[in-house]
Structure formats: structure tokens, C-alpha cells
From TrEMBL, chain A:
<keyword id="KW-0732">Signal</keyword>
<feature type="transmembrane region" description="Helical">
    <location>
        <begin position="146"/>
        <end position="170"/>
    </location>
</feature>
<dbReference type="GO" id="GO:0051957">
    <property type="term" value="P:positive regulation of amino acid transport"/>
</dbReference>
<keyword id="KW-0472">Membrane</keyword>
<feature type="domain" description="Collectrin-like">
    <location>
        <begin position="23"/>
        <end position="220"/>
    </location>
</feature>
<feature type="signal peptide">
    <location>
        <begin position="1"/>
        <end position="15"/>
    </location>
</feature>
<keyword id="KW-0597">Phosphoprotein</keyword>
<keyword id="KW-1133">Transmembrane helix</keyword>
<keyword id="KW-0325">Glycoprotein</keyword>
Automatic annotation (TrEMBL), chain B:
<feature type="transmembrane region" description="Helical">
    <location>
        <begin position="20"/>
        <end position="39"/>
    </location>
</feature>
<dbReference type="GO" id="GO:0046872">
    <property type="term" value="F:metal ion binding"/>
</dbReference>
<feature type="transmembrane region" description="Helical">
    <location>
        <begin position="45"/>
        <end position="69"/>
    </location>
</feature>
<dbReference type="InterPro" id="IPR000175">
    <property type="entry name" value="Na/ntran_symport"/>
</dbReference>
<feature type="binding site">
    <location>
        <position position="35"/>
    </location>
    <ligand>
        <name>Na(+)</name>
    </ligand>
</feature>
<keyword id="KW-0472">Membrane</keyword>
<keyword id="KW-0812">Transmembrane</keyword>
<feature type="binding site">
    <location>
        <position position="291"/>
    </location>
    <ligand>
        <name>Na(+)</name>
    </ligand>
</feature>
<feature type="transmembrane region" description="Helical">
    <location>
        <begin position="90"/>
        <end position="122"/>
    </location>
</feature>
């Protein structure tokens, strides 16, 4: 690991940028492979690092369509077992000059999805510290789903109410024609009288109130 | 279930199709939201298993006697609450009116809770659940600030559901979505009430039994969750010392009283539709015991799930600490796990304690998470919804949970509304031309319009006020006068005769001792203790204020004076009819001492019905 570190920190033949001193133009990257993939986690080795540099070069090419970035333009240093490291992008024309932070940020943002997918990771497990992930556009359905459920429930309930009211109204009209109109007991017996319930009539046929034993106290 | 035709006026009173409907309706009325979200909370803060002792004592000496009394008197006199108390003595007519007013006020705010349950139910059919993540703000740069500061669950409850204002003085406007949900809730209540107990009797087959099914499913599911056993052990581990505190006994007595839905008049109305020869003693004991058993049964899945939530939170706390350590010390990914966290922390502290201190790691303690208790709407809409997110298949559990809450509340609403409708019918306030369906619709509409108060921005604060003041002291007073009315005015001997007529045996010594001495004494003590406690604490309320310094903690604010006046009115207005009617009857009797009172029943409690005027 240590020789690798040294190797990576050694300036390539043409470039003269020292990653360690160019922090202001570099970004720290942090990967959490085991957290994201669990059993299917791969080891982080030199080939993976090469892939990373290649994807960043691709992102820079995509963003800046005129320049032809190479893998060697991506300089990496300070690798740790966490798997985190710093990288700097150098200009293809002048390897001594680092590309400014903003441009790198925009390039990474544009191709973030491709970079993530290359490593089977997500925005959370492949972090670019300082480049916040673009939040996914909220999916706004045409009608909020709760209104649909509400519509179904209220429709069913209202239909039920109407049905019950209509049936009881029809039944009452039919019974009114059939039964004898009871003569009204005009004595207010106060609260002694029982409740007139439609249901009782419905269940027990016609109830002729002409002979009702509901007068506890006959009039003197 | 034959009717004794000769003894009583042949009545057109509706009756239950069968005994099962009646029992299920009474059980449904008694078993309500409080069994699920109040009792487990009390159990938790009052030393777990030890709380069962004062609870069961209160059930036996206070709950069951009062329940038996209400069912017996309603069944014997076959009238709603106003009619019953007028029959016993015209001076007591106010008790019935008080019951009716309390039932109306409670029905108004209770249905708002059901509206909230419906709102959550409608939102449970989405993936992902809307309270699991923060919404993105307008320019898509981040999440809504209020949500980030608190939690997505809190944000969904306080902002997207209630749209709560910062304090009770700011009323805000009517939230149209809550109005829709409230209208739906009232429509559902109305459709069950359309044909009176005919439709209620059918509805309770579902609403009274479905919660038990869901609770069983939840028990099975919850016990397989990690951390469930921690929660249940925490719930049931008794702390015997806590029984020394008088607050425990007071809360046990009030809990059993409100849990059984006594003094609402609904139970009297329901039992008045029974045939006279029905064993109401057995009914009372069954209803009371099933109610308490349901409370205990419900606390098992609640606490299993709360234990699961505490464990999840504890693990998340550890995970975030692990992430901080991993990132700052560049340790390999997943080298620090929950199991070896402590050893890693020790070794890192030994080598580089300064950096570790700089990380400001939160101390993760499972006990602290278990201690986070909640009751009421906080339990259902914040704590439980958060737990449901972490369970696989969240939508199913959310839907089941909210349908269970809805049916628990709906069957209680039946009792509330019946406590309003039955006395009004008996008072013959309904004009003859109005069919009963229309009258029920009118009452439902009136309740809906009054309930719109709770759909405003400050609605939640008002609901808390109603909950604390309407459904508490007034009921204690009414229940006390019920006892006094039956034992004092009707007489224990006459009442014993009634019961012998209905059940075939006289009430035994235990019931008589309770009615005459123990229950009134207990009620008086509970009432006085309640007053004392209320007077000592200045009434305050927790307000959700995003501009508060310590946000997301709720800001504790005192009630303004005009609100406090309303609180006092809410206690006074329901119980005011009791003295007013008694005084009115007194005065009108004084002016009518010469006239023989043909129309009123003899108010003489010594009236021996052997000498009736019709012989």
C-alpha cells in the first residue's frame, strides 16, 4: 500500500502538479463499499482506482467537449484504508495547471449518475465532499393519492346513505297507505311514554294503536 | 326475550335483534381510543405491572358498581338519560341534561380525532409513506427547513396534517383537507345511525370485533421484531415503590372511570332497548372485565413496537457515531460495528482523546429511548407512525393500525351520539313531521359545524382543552349525582326490587356496600383530588412554534385569560343544569302545592305503587 501511495504521489513524467499542495482545487472522495454492497463488496485496488480516474476523465470530457482529458490528467493522493482520497484534475494542455474547483464540480454533478453506476454505488456511499448530491425531483402525481382514496370512501358512504334513505322512505309510504292512522293521545304524559320507533312497525307488521295499553293512569 | 306486556305500556321502543348486538355495542362504547393510547402510557409511567393493582381495585370498587347501576336503571325504566332521571325524581332532570350536553361536546371533538385518523389512513396507500421523508423545498436545493430541524414524522403531523399555528390566539384558517376528512367521518357515523339501533347493531359486528383481530395480528408481528422483548419487559417490570404516590391511585381511578364511558347517558340508552327480564348484573361484569382485559391486551403490541422503536433509535444513534469515527479516523469501512463499538471507542480514546472529544459523539443509551413515553395523539400519530416506517411492509401495518383506531373510535361515537339522540327523542323535542333520519342528520350536521372549530390552525390546542376540561370533572359530578339519585331518591330497597324483577335475584352485599358507601366515597375523593391537582398547576399547553429558540421542542405557553374563561365555562355549562333544574322544580312545586299533579309521576320516593291511580 505504501509504495502505491508514493507512486501515486510521484508526479508523472509530464505533469508537475503536487496534489498535496493544491488542496484548494481538489476534492476529497469517500467510498463506503462494504456498507453499500454488503457481501457483494469488491476490494478497492489499483484497477478500481484506475476506473475512478477514467470516469472522472470521462466526466470532464463530457462537460468540456473541446478538451480531451486523459487518465493521467487525474491526479490522486492521500489514500486511506477508509477508502478515501483526494484528487485534482489537471489541464490536458498544461499539466502543471489545475482545473478550478467550480468546473470540476459542475462536471461531476452532470455525470454523477454515471460515476455512481460505474462503481455500483449511490450518492451516499460515493461521496464527493463539498459537492452535494442533486435531490431527485419529487414525483408529483396528477391527483394526490389520498384524494383518490377519499373519493372512493365518500362515494361509497354517500351511495349507502342514499340507498338506505330511499328504501326506508319507500317502505314508510307503503305502510302509511296500509295501516290505520292512530288517534293521537293528546295527553302529555311527560316522559313516561315510550319512543315511537319506525323499526318496531317494520318488524312486527301493522300495529293498530287504537287499542294501546299505554295509559297507565286513566283520566279521572 | 319475551316482552312482559301487561306490566308496562306496550311500547314502540326499538329493540336489539339479539343479545350479542347489545353486548358488542356496550363493549364497543367502553373500549375506545383510550384503551390503546392512554392505558399503556399510564402503565409505563407508573411502574409497569405494579399499576395493575390500583387499576383493578378501582375497577372492582368504582367501575363495576357504577356500570351495573347505569345498565340496571336504563333497562328498568326503558328511557334515555333525561327520561330516566325525570322518572326517578323531577329534581334530577338536570342530571340527564348534563349527560346529554357532555355527550354532545365530547362527540364533537372525538370525531375530529377520527378525522385525523382518516387523514392518515388515506395517506397510508402510498409508497413511500409520506411521513417517512422530508419534502424537498421549492428550489430543490434541500429539504424544508422545519422538517430538517425536527423529524419527518413530526413535520407531517404538525405541518402537513394540522398546519398548526404557533399559539392558541392565532386561529389560522379552516384547513380544507381536514374539513373533508371531518365530513367523511360524520357521514360514516351517520350511515351507521340512519335506522337507529337497527343499523348500529349490524355495524358493531365489525367495529367492535375488528380491533381485536388487528391487535392479535400486531402481537404476532411485533413479537418477532428485534427489541420487542425489551419493550415488554420494560412495560411489565413492576416498581412497587411507586404505589406510595397518591397520584397513581388518582390516575387509576380516573382512567377506569373514563375508560368505561360512564355518565355519558349512552349506556343508559343502550340498555333501555333491552327487554326487561335480562341479567344486567352479568352484562355489567362482562363489559367491565372485557374493557380492562382489552386495555392490558392492547398494551402488549404497543410496547413491543415501542421497544422495537427504541432499539432502532439506539442502533441509529450508534451508527451515526460509528460513521463519525470512521470518517474522521479513516478506519476501514464497516470495521467498527455495533458489537465492537465500545472497544474501538476505548482504544481510540486512549490514543487520541482530543479528536474523539472534538467529534461530540452523543451518548447512546437504550434506557433513555425506552423512557420516551407518549400518550394520546402523540403516540398514534408520531411515535407509532415512526415505528411503522422501519417495519417491512409499512403500508400494510399503517393501514391496519389506522383502520383499527377508526373502528375503536367509531364504536365509541355510537354511544356519544346515542347519548344525545335518545334523550331528545324522549323529550319529544322532535316535531312530528320530521322523520327520525332527518333529525339524526340534523344533529350530525350541527355537530359537524361546531366541530369545524377543530379544523382551524389552532384546532389541536382547542381539542386538548376540550379533552381535558369537558370529559373530566363534569363526568365525575354527573356520576356522583347518578349514585345519589338512585340510592337517595329511588331508594336501595326499590332499586333492589327492580333488580330482582329483572334478574330474579336481589343484589348481594357487595353491590349494596359499593353503592351506598364505597363508590360515592371514592368518587368524592377522586373529584376533590382532581380539583386540588388542577388548582395547583397553572394551566399551560405545549405549542409547536418553528421560531422558538429550542425548536423542535414544544414551547410551553400559559393559556390567555379569555381561553381560561372558556375552560371554566366548559366545566360549568354541562353541570349547570343539575342545580338549575332542581331549583326550577322546587320553585314551581311551591307554586303548585294545591293542585293535584295528575300529569307528573308522584315524586314521593315513598310512593308504594300498590296504590296506583288507575285502580
Amino acid at each position: 500500500m505504501f509504495p502505491l501511495l508514493l507512486l501515486l504521489c510521484l508526479p508523472p513524467a509530464l505533469a508537475a502538479v503536487d496534489c498535496n499542495t493544491e488542496y484548494k482545487n481538489g476534492y476529497q472522495v469517500r467510498l463506503s463499499i462494504k456498507t453499500a454492497l454488503g457481501d457483494q463488496a469488491y476490494d478497492w485496488n489499483e484497477s478500481e482506482m484506475f476506473l475512478f480516474r477514467a470516469t472522472i476523465a470521462f466526466a470532464m470530457r463530457k462537460f468540456n467537449k473541446t478538451e480531451a482529458y486523459e487518465v493521467s490528467n487525474i491526479v490522486v493522493c492521500n489514500q486511506t484504508p477508509r477508502v478515501s482520497f483526494w484528487f485534482i484534475v489537471t489541464s490536458p494542455e498544461d499539466p502543471a495547471q489545475a482545473i478550478s474547483k467550480n468546473i470540476v464540480e459542475q462536471a461531476v454533478r452532470e455525470s454523477r449518475n454515471r460515476i455512481n453506476n460505474a462503481f455500483l454505488l449511490t450518492d451516499k456511499s460515493l461521496e464527493f465532499l463539498g459537492i452535494p448530491p442533486t435531490l431527485a425531483a419529487p414525483i408529483i402525481p396528477a391527483t394526490p393519492p389520498w384524494l383518490i382514496v377519499f373519493g372512493v370512501v365518500i362515494g361509497a358512504v354517500c351511495a349507502g346513505i342514499v340507498a338506505l334513505l330511499v328504501t326506508s322512505f319507500v317502505k314508510r309510504r307503503r305502510e302509511k297507505k296500509a295501516k290505520v292512522v292512530p288517534e293521537e293521545e293528546d295527553q302529555a304524559k311527560g316522559t313516561d311514554k315510550a319512543v315511537t320507533g319506525e323499526t318496531f312497525e317494520d318488524r312486527n307488521g301493522v300495529y293498530n294503536l287504537g287499542f294501546a295499553d299505554d295509559d297507565r293512569f286513566t283520566q279521572l | 326475550m319475551a316482552e312482559s306486556a301487561g306490566e308496562k305500556p306496550a311500547d314502540e321502543r326499538p329493540k336489539w335483534d339479539n343479545k350479542v348486538q347489545y353486548m358488542l355495542t356496550c363493549i364497543g362504547f367502553a373500549v375506545g381510543l383510550g384503551n390503546v393510547w392512554r392505558f399503556p402510557y399510564l402503565c409505563q409511567i407508573y411502574g409497569g405491572g405494579a399499576f395493575l393493582i390500583p387499576y383493578l381495585i378501582a375497577l372492582v370498587f368504582e367501575g363495576l358498581p357504577l356500570l351495573y347501576l347505569e345498565l340496571a336503571i336504563g333497562q328498568r325504566l326503558r328511557l334515555g338519560s333525561i327520561g330516566v332521571w325525570n322518572s326517578i325524581s323531577p329534581y334530577l332532570g338536570g342530571v340527564g341534561m348534563a349527560s346529554m350536553i357532555v355527550s354532545f361536546l365530547v362527540g364533537v371533538y372525538y370525531n375530529t380525532i377520527l378525522a385525523w385518523v382518516l387523514w392518515y389512513l388515506f395517506h397510508s396507500f402510498q409508497n413511500p409513506l409520506p411521513w417517512s421523508e422530508c419534502p424537498v423545498n421549492d428550489d430543490r436545493t434541500g429539504y424544508v427547513q422545519e422538517c430538517v430541524d425536527s423529524t419527518p414524522v413530526n413535520y407531517f403531523w404538525y405541518r402537513q396534517t394540522l398546519n398548526v399555528t404557533a399559539n392558541i390566539e392565532t386561529s389560522g384558517s379552516l384547513q380544507w383537507w381536514l374539513v373533508l376528512c371531518l365530513a367523511t367521518a360524520w357521514c360514516i357515523v351517520y350511515i351507521c345511525f340512519i335506522k337507529g339501533i337497527e343499523t348500529i347493531g349490524k355495524a358493531v359486528y365489525v367495529t367492535a370485533t375488528f380491533p381485536y383481530l388487528v391487535l392479535t395480528i400486531f402481537i404476532v408481528r411485533a413479537l418477532t421484531l428485534p427489541g420487542a422483548t425489551d419493550g415488554i419487559l420494560y412495560l411489565f417490570t413492576p416498581e412497587w415503590e411507586i404505589l406510595m404516590k397518591p397520584q397513581v391511585w388518582l390516575d387509576a381511578a380516573t382512567q377506569i372511570f373514563f375508560s368505561l364511558s360512564l355518565a355519558f347517558g349512552g349506556l343508559i340508552a343502550f340498555s333501555s332497548y333491552n327487554p326487561q327480564k335480562n341479567d344486567c348484573e352479568r352484562d355489567a361484569v362482562i363489559v367491565g372485565c372485557i374493557n380492562s382485559a382489552t386495555s392490558i391486551y392492547a398494551s402488549i403490541p404497543i410496547f413491543a413496537i415501542l421497544g422495537f422503536k427504541a432499539t432502532s433509535n439506539y442502533n441509529s444513534c450508534l451508527e451515526s457515531n460509528i460513521l463519525s469515527l470512521t470518517n474522521s479516523f479513516d478506519v476501514g469501512d464497516q470495521n467498527i460495528t455495533i458489537e465492537n463499538y465500545n472497544s474501538w471507542l476505548d482504544s481510540l480514546n486512549r490514543t487520541d482523546s482530543v479528536s474523539v472529544a472534538r467529534l461530540n459523539l452523543t451518548k447512546c443509551n437504550l434506557q433513555t429511548f425506552l423512557d420516551q413515553s407518549a400518550s394520546g395523539t402523540g403516540l398514534a400519530f408520531i411515535v407509532f407512525t415512526e415505528a411503522v416506517i422501519s417495519m417491512p411492509g409499512s403500508q400494510v401495518w399503517a393501514v391496519l393500525f389506522f383502520i383499527m383506531l377508526f373502528s375503536l373510535g367509531l364504536s365509541s361515537m355510537f354511544g356519544n351520539l346515542e347519548g344525545v339522540l335518545a334523550p331528545l327523542r324522549d323529550l319529544k323535542v322532535v316535531p312530528k313531521w320530521m322523520p327520525p333520519q332527518l333529525f339524526t342528520a340534523f344533529i350530525a350536521l350541527l355537530s359537524f359545524l361546531v366541530g369545524l372549530v377543530f379544523t382551524m390552525g389552532s384546532g389541536n390546542y382547542w381539542l386538548e382543552i376540550f379533552n381535558n376540561y369537558v370529559g373530566s370533572v363534569s363526568l365525575l359530578i354527573i356520576a356522583f349525582f347518578e349514585l345519589v339519585g338512585v340510592i337517595g331518591f329511588r331508594g336501595i330497597r326499590q332499586f333492589g326490587d327492580d333488580i330482582e324483577f329483572m334478574t330474579g335475584r336481589r343484589p348481594n352485599l357487595f353491590w349494596k356496600a359499593c353503592w351506598l358507601v364505597i363508590s360515592p366515597l371514592l368518587l368524592l375523593v377522586v373529584f376533590l383530588a382532581y380539583i386540588v391537582v388542577q388548582v395547583q398547576t397553572t394551566p399551560t399547553y405545549p405549542a409547536w412554534n418553528p421560531d422558538y429558540v429550542d425548536f423542535p421542542q414544544t414551547e410551553v405557553q400559559p393559556y390567555p385569560t379569555w381561553v381560561f374563561v372558556i375552560c371554566v365555562l366548559l366545566v360549568a355549562i354541562p353541570v349547570a343544569p343539575i342545580p338549575i333544574v332542581a331549583l326550577y322544580k322546587c320553585i314551581s312545586n311551591l307554586f303548585r302545592t294545591t293542585e293535584t299533579d295528575v300529569q307528573n309521576r308522584p315524586s314521593n320516593p315513598y310512593c308504594n305503587e300498590g296504590f296506583d291511580k288507575d285502580t
